[in-house]
Request: fold
Amino acid sequence: MDYRDALAWQKQVTPQNRASIQETYNFDVFYFSRLFGPRFTAQNYPLTARFFSKLSATANAMVSQLKNHYKRPRPFVTHPAIHLLVPNEPGYSYPSGHTTRSRLSAMVLAELIPSASREIMRTAEVVATDRILAGEHYQTDVEAGRHLAKLIFRSLNADPSFRHDLETLKASSEWTPSPSLHPQQREPIL
Reply:
C-alpha cells in the first residue's frame, strides 16, 4: 500500500511541485517567510533563529533514534519506479524528519501567532507532502513525523525551561508586535 501511494503521488508531480520540493528540501523556520513576508529571516530575527535551531536539534535527536531503530530504506532505494527529486540524504525513511521539524515549528509558531495558526499548519503540510513527492518518504513516514512532532511538543510544553524560553522569545522585540500574515497569504496555500 505505501509503495502504491508513493508512486501515485509522484506521478502527479507538476513543475510547480518540483520548485516547491527544491525549496522545502532546505527547511528551516524561515520557510514560513512565505506567510510573513521577506523580512522574516534569520538576519532580522536572530533570537528566533537560535530558538528554532535548538528546537530542530531536539527534534533531530528523536528522529535519528527512531530512524536508526527501524532502518526503513527510503522509497527511491527500494523501488526503482520512484525517482529521487532532491539531493540524496543519508539515513533512513521512518519517520520523516522534515515533517517532524516543520510540524513542530508550526506548533510553536502557532503559539506565537495564534491568529495565523491555520495558515501556519497548512504551510507545514506543504513540507510534509513535498517529501513524498520527492521520493524520500512514504505516507506512513510522514504520518509518523506528524505524530512525533505532537509528542515532542507536549513534552516540551511540560518543561519549565522551554516555556520560559518561549515566553522570553514572545516578549522580545522580534515578536512585539509579532509578524503578521503577508497580504498575499491570507488565502489557503494548498
